Amino acid sequence: MLLLAAPQDGQSRTIRQFQFTDWPEQGVPKTGEGFIDFIGQVHKTKEQFGQDGPITVHCSAGVGRTGVFITLSIVLERMRYEGVVDLFQTVKTLRTQRPAMVQTEDQYQLCYRAALEYLGSFDHYAT
């Protein structure tokens, strides 16, 4: 946690940094479960502290892991509130704003696996 203050007006903002450490150097995680939990933790912390600022996401190139995080954040939220799953359109829209988002086929497939794992997690509560 870091507290930044603007010298001009004394306004301050608390910055919380999260780091996902289970992503391998090459390829993608075998499952999306840990990454889904990480995304949930980031959003839950933002809500818990009532922060209205943006979530800033970064990785080395700014499109691979970052793209997966943003894609899954959007898709999981839409699943929860709208009952909609449209990974293709989500990635397509993101790529109009930043080319190469979700950089590799493996990352794209991880998004699908993670979404399916997320949906499958609700089977435990059925009937």
TrEMBL record:
Residue ranges of every copy of the Tyrosine specific protein phosphatases domain listed in the record: 36-109
Q: Which UniProt keywords apply?
A: Hydrolase, Protein phosphatase, Receptor
In its UniProt record, a GO molecular function of this protein is: protein tyrosine phosphatase activity
- Give the enzyme's EC designation: 3.1.3.48
InterPro entries linked to this entry:
Prot-tyrosine_phosphatase-like, Protein-Tyr_Phosphatase, PTP_cat, Tyr_Pase_AS, Tyr_Pase_cat, Tyr_Pase_dom
> Into which EC class is this enzyme placed?
hydrolase
**Which residue numbers delimit the Tyrosine-protein phosphatase domain?**
1-118
Task: Please report the name of this protein according to its UniProt entry.
Answer: protein-tyrosine-phosphatase
